[in-house]
From TrEMBL:
Domain Methyltransferase: 39-125
Keyword Ion transport: no
Key word Transferase present: yes
Annotated GO biological process: methylation
Protein name: Methyltransferase
Entry-linked Pfam families: Methyltransf_25
InterPro entries: Methyltransf_25, SAM-dependent_MTases_sf
GO MF: methyltransferase activity
């Protein structure tokens, strides 16, 4: 499905970074950043342009092609693996920041994926997450059509309980991220320190 979606000539989620990601990244000193399920590269290329050493991964080879093309256009370097969460090779306790932007999974995989990404974050590192809340099921502006794949504050509190200074909140926002994320949306945002 993702290869098919990303095979389009246009960048289906745009080439500008996610707004929340951009705002939170600006509060941090550049270091090593991990971006799981990075798709067409809009967030990784932006971060690299701000001095971050970026490692990204996604299951889509088409997404990787477009991400590397965008990096070339912007004159930056990103490392991008074509791999899923269970195959990706990641060092433990390595990254200064991990950002999961619209990385939804089945209920059975969600906690395992979140814990795996946490294990790659070093002590003192920042975790950033934005995804659709369960209320997004009532909107036609993006996200999975399976409510079990959408986030609740309680689920995220459980998955990220080891983080300190943990903040999780729901917001109604106006998304403008290409044709697939466009219009009024219900999102959950998370920030925490390992």
């Amino acid at each position: 499905m993702w290869d098919e979606r990303y095979a389009a000539e246009e960048y289906v989620y745009g080439t500008s970074p996610n707004q929340f990601f951009r705002e939170e990244l600006a509060k941090l000193a550049p270091g090593r950043l991990l971006l799981p399920a990075e798709g067409e590269g809009r967030n990784s290329v932006y971060a690299a342009s701000r001095g971050w050493k970026v490692v990204a991964f996604d299951t889509s080879a088409e997404g990787q092609k477009k991400a590397l093309r965008l990096a070339g256009q912007k004159g930056v370097h990103i490392q991008y693996q074509v791999a899923g969460y269970s195959q990706v090779l990641l060092p433990e306790e390595h990254f200064d920041c991990v950002a999961m932007i619209y990385t939804h999974a089945s209920a059975s995989d969600r906690t395992k994926r979140h814990r795996r990404m946490l294990s790659s974050l070093k002590e003192g590192g920042t975790f950033i997450l934005e995804g659709f809340s369960k209320e997004q099921i009532h909107n036609q502006t993006g996200g999975p059509r399976d409510v079990a794949m959408l986030f609740s504050e309680e689920e995220l509190k459980f998955d990220f309980q080891e983080l300190s200074e943990l903040k999780i909140w729901k917001e109604e926002i106006e998304l403008q991220e290409g044709p697939f994320h466009n219009g009024k949306a219900s999102v959950i945002r998370l920030i925490g320190i390992k």
